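Subject: Protein record for review, amino acid sequence with backbone structure tokens
Why sent: The fold of this protein is of interest and is recorded here as tokens.
Enclosed: The protein record, placed directly beneath this head.
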Amino acid sequence: MRVKIISILAMSALLSACQMTPNETSDNQELDQEHQIAEQIRVSCEQSGEQVADIFDCDSAEAGTIPVTHPVDEVVVDELEAPEEVAAVDEEIVDIWQRISKQLNFEIIDDKRVTEQRDWYLRHPAYMERVAKRAKPFLHLIVEEIEKHNMPLELVLLPIVESAFDPFAYSHGRAAGMWQFIPATGKRFGMKQTWWYDGRRDVLASTKGAIAYLTYLNTMFDGNWLHALAAYNSGEGRVMAAIKRNKKANKSTEFWALDLPRETRAYVPKLLALADILKNSEKYNFVWPEIENQALTQAVDVGSQIDLALAAQMAGLTVKELHALNPGYNRWATDPDGPFELLLPIDKVSQFQQALAKTDSKERLNWVRHKVKGGDSLLKLADKYHTTVDIIAQVNELKGNMIRQGDYLVIPVALKSLDSYSLSQDQRLVATQSKKHSGAFKLSHEVKSGDTMWDISRKYKVNLRSLAKWNGMAPTDPLIPGKNLVVWVDKVTDSQSNNAIMRSLTYTVRSGDSLARIADKFKVSIKDIQQWNKINAKKYLQPGQRLKIYVDVTRT
């Protein structure tokens, strides 16, 4: 049986969460900052009276939340094939959603919040189809882990609420991965985070971490799963404080009676609504996209650092397909200090292992011999060869950062050009910053000490969340001095005179006009006119047709 196209990245799910612990002051500060950002955007929405399409929903700002942002480029793992000799785990349960459904036990109460969320999912079946495509390579692994730890199978649905099963999703609190861990909580529950690797995006590592964190929360709240889930979203300290307030006031301490942030009050009902729809799919006439109840992928321990392009070649995959299954790797190779595990389509494992056995560990990376020149430094070389200072020092057994002109250094480098590693952190940023937007002029802003996203958005009069999205960031991400941010604007103004240098105008096509004539008239390129107006080069202009043109007013 062949499993067709699997989309790992796709558009939108306005669903998010951010974990915190009572001892993580910085995390609490992050959440406070997020709420400040949400308030600033809410005010901005009120002032503009508009919603920013595809960027930010003003209704979400009104609710005090900022949704998860998902990359829009679709990544496809062409085909995953389950071996014919492997039968389903249970012949009567051929669909893994059925396997999950039979083990759902949470009580679904008649509450307006659950009804609203359930109605939304029922009205958007296409959304669940996108989610299922992303989940398909990983769902069996996640179910197996949760069953192994004797956890409620409702938790399998949590990545839908968190990230729509998008391992590349990021959110307002610097949360990453399909389980949406912020850096501190990720480290606390075993997710390594280095320049090379981020365990929060590693599907297996983050699933094990989520199980550990949820087990901890369930114990803390005396087995109350709704309290534990609420704490997973907004932090155990906040939920514990709400419970104490209700106890003191002689009120119910059930989740439904707690005074929690609006996001959290909707978060738990989302999960319950999904569980209700899955358990009673016939009642609601809702079809869950079928996923085989058997493993489609398998983890293989490579044993040492390996170039992802080489690993993909060994497995008979493209680099993009391999990286889509292994989103934890930030760069062109696995982390030199591990982990060295790769998730592969199950029908590719045998050929990969055979090829790996024939390849010495030293041949798993490409190497260059660099002669040190005047002005060279380890930092400069690390930047040039896209590696780290520590790796160069370790490989060359350097005791410090001093290098001498004329000496030779051996440096590991990517086997292919960097743009071949399209899902690496570097290339995702390049793709994000290079993508044209409706504002035709791309500016570069070098971050200075003290800069904030809000300040920069006000300076250029652009939407805060748009600014973050253009740079592959979240609005509350810290800014590093020297970092260059891309800013897309409708016009460029002179910083001294505040007069417009570039502005947009609308041109009405006349009889006899051509793209070349219009481009010459306004001293712009034909390609730009086509891009600004999404014109097909093969189609003729029509008299009366209106074109948007961006012109340099200093030339007119």
Observations:
- The radius of gyration is 26 Å.
- The first helix runs from residue 25 to 48.
